[in-house]
Amino acid sequence: MSSTLLEVTRAAHEEVERFERLIVKDLQNEPSNAKDRLFQSHRVRHMIDTISVTTEKLIEVYEDKDSARKDEVAALGGQTATGTNVFSAFYDRLKEIRDYHRRHPAARVVDANEEYEAMLKEEPSIEFSGEEAFGRYLDLHEMYHQYINSKFGEKIEYAAYLDVFSEPQKISRKLRMTRQYRDYMVNLLEYLIYFFQRTEPLQDLDRIFSKVVTEFEEQWMGGMVEGWEKDDKENGHAPGEHTAIDLDYYSSVEELMEVGPEKLKEALAGLGLKTGGTVQQRAERLFLTKHTPLEQLDKKHFAKGSRSSEQNGDVAALREADNSAEIALMEAKVAKLCDFLNETIERTKENVVKKQAMTYDEIEAEREDEETQADSESDDEDQQIYNPLKLPMGWDGKPIPYWLYKLHGLGQEFKCEICGNYSYWGRRAFERHFKEWRHQHGMRCLGIPNTKNFNEITSIEEAKELWKRIQERQGVNKWRPDLEEEYEDKEGNIYNKKTYTDLQRQGLI
Asked: According to its UniProt record, which protein family does this protein belong to (predicted)?
């Protein structure tokens, strides 16, 4: 019954419409505090993701690449290989319905609205550290320590770091080209994205970054990206570093000799010329380049391997340009996220400065006040409960018994790489998460359907390998109706569908 393609299509449309009504209904309720508002945003985001997944399935059905939907519609109209028989199709379907209810006499209509309405009361699980205080503040301590222990950073206080982390252009270009700085920017960008997704789930981050990339590429081609402008300075070197000496100021070899042997050697090396010999020989060799282009100089003046060094230098320059663009793009994304999180950054600064001026007792009192305030904001939250073992809360809002905690293995951690290395505590939560939105979103990003075949699979590589094997097996075992469906003529001869249709078209049957 429900396995027919048309029934699956109908159910998918119904699910999409029901989620749309739920989203409207949820957004009509004005949250009483910031916590409820965040829960509402995550619920709506989850429903939007579910609608997207269901819509993608519907698109595949309507594309009908295997003509399954077309055949099913034709069968409903009574079209068969021998002709059209509407009454036969009707009574066959009626018989199928009666057989179904005969096999399932206790079957009843389930009101799905109750299950969907319960979703409006759910509180999504959102992880925030103590420093983040449920999304009120940023926790940049890891990036701060990486900054002050690096060559590009300064030994500054955490409060001062909050003022400069969003302004990377103040760091010299040469230091920003290092691998250490690149790793720092990767970590900073990943944290800001993770924080933004937790606090602003309804924002379309992909569209925001797409606009950032478009604007960045235009500015990069024009050399107008702040801190990466195209000028006479390349890779942090001063103008004319390769020549090191401006020959226009010298009219003779003797005057050039006064520069000294080291500067002459450096200038010759920058041009790929030999650097050996006395001071006079070096000056004479360099003075030749004042009126003679390098291409016209005798090969004996060039150092061995200078041509290959030049080629290697070109390759290195291209690689350096790519690295520069990558780092500059990360800086642009960080700047955009900082614009969105500007209010949060300011609150974080104020909180850090306030805590620096407080004693330990005052900090503890402030923390208790914040917890009390957070409790008073929610009508469903009770008073603080003593929970030194940090046991999960039960249905009554109190910590569950320790024996139950051990029985269900809630101290056992399961990590899922597909969910972004998210941790699940206890076997039951781990098994349940394969049907939840986070795992479904991860599978969708990999382009893999979240079916039962992938239960217990938490590694991205394992999921890709299994999906590849399933596709290969489906290619071999896929039923091909044109070649495998059998037809019999009046004389009892057996043909496959394609041959039978061709013979019938030619009037041979």
From this structure: Belongs to the SF3A3 family.
Asked if 289 and 297 count as a contact pair (C-beta separation under 8 A), the reply is yes
With a cut of 70, list the residues of the chain below it in pLDDT: 1-3, 78-85, 106-122, 230-244, 246, 248-249, 304-322, 356-390, 394-397, 403, 408, 474-480, 482-483
Q: Could you tell me the residue ranges of all domains in the chain?
A: 5-120, 134-231+316-357, 247-304, 408-474, 479-508
Distance CA(298)–CA(12), nearest Å, equals: 79
Tokens of 100: 């179904």
Give first-to-last CA distance, the chain, whole Å: 35
Distance, CA of 501 to CA of 377 (rounded, Å): 73
Measured CA to CA, the distance from residue 456 to residue 470 in angstroms comes to: 16
d(CA 254, CA 274): 19
Q: What is the residue type of 271?
A: L
Over residues 282-327, the pLDDT tens digits come to 888 888 887 787 777 877 778 765 554 444 444 444 456 667 888 8
Yes or no: say if 188 and 165 are a contact pair by the CB < 8 Å rule. yes
- Say if CB 188 and CB 27 are below 8 A apart: no
Amino acid 209 reads F
Other residues' Cβ atoms within 10 Å of the Cβ of residue 400: 16
d(CA 38, CA 487): 61
Q: Which two tokens stand for residue 496?
A: 């496959």
Residues 6+ apart with CB under 8 A from 228: 173, 220, 324, 328
CA dist 267 and 243 (Å) reads 5
Q: What is the DSSP string of 111-169?
A: -HHHHHHHHTT--------TTTTTTTS---HHHHHHHHTSSSS----HHHHHHHTT-GG
Cα Rg for the chain, rounded, in angstroms? 35
Q: Answer for the pair 45, 202: CB distance below 8 angstroms, yes or no.
A: yes
Structure tokens, 105: 């006499």
How does DSSP classify residue 273?
Answer: B
The residue behind tokens 């389930």 is 110
Q: Summarize pLDDT for 301-313 with one digit per residue, the tens.
A: 787 655 544 444 4
Residue bearing tokens 């051990």:
406
Cβ within 8 Å of residue 179, ≥6 positions away = none
Contact 270, 242 (CB under 8 A): yes
35 CB contacts (<8 Å, ≥6 apart)? 134, 374, 377, 378
